[in-house]
Amino acid sequence: MRVDFYLLSSSELDARWLLACRLLEKAYLRGHRVFVYCNTQAEAELIDERLWTFKADSFIPHNLQGEGPEQSPPIQIGYQEAPKGFSDILLNLADDIPSFYTRFRRVMEIVINDDDAKTLSRARYRVYRSNHCELLTHAME
Description:
3 helices, seven-stranded parallel beta sheet, alpha/beta, single chain
């Protein structure tokens, strides 16, 4: 399994949400199915709203887990439960690694330039490394 860490130079949370939207748009345009895992319902609703508004000319089919049609769109956003029918890409926006991460082919992590965020990220990195994941880091502007 491959795990990509996207390291932001900004310490602003807004930069994290914007990069999440960009990564989701890119994954969608390449035909991937992505499950976005958040800490809370409020965060899940925030990324849901951002996907509707981050670009005027962009449409990314998505829904919150448990809402919308029975046939899930390519992007599903959740915060407590394991996804059903998703095994391609996990965008982990939570502080911890969800127990179901091993069912995915790829995991994406976004890290803002903040000491607390970096500490949490390093802990996740060690877990992935101990589970023999292929780890890649990407410095983002």
